[in-house]
Amino acid sequence: MAFTEYADHDGLGLAALVAKGEVSxxxxxxxxxxxxxxxxxxxxxxxxKAYDEARKVAAENERTGVCETARQRLRYRPREA
Length: 81
Description:
Shape: flat
């Protein structure tokens, strides 16, 4: 599943979306990887791509409920426009 709004949020905004259950950590990870692959040829910013390890961590976090813990601790307040 594509998460097309990824670029519309900063890190706190993305965390809030996970906390609210609007997007999964795996979906965010896939969106980040897609952007790395799209832009890294020019930027060369990511030299070690630990995608498999990151996918394992995201899946484990979802399975064990770490996301639920993050949801309880998150004190996100959207910026007012």
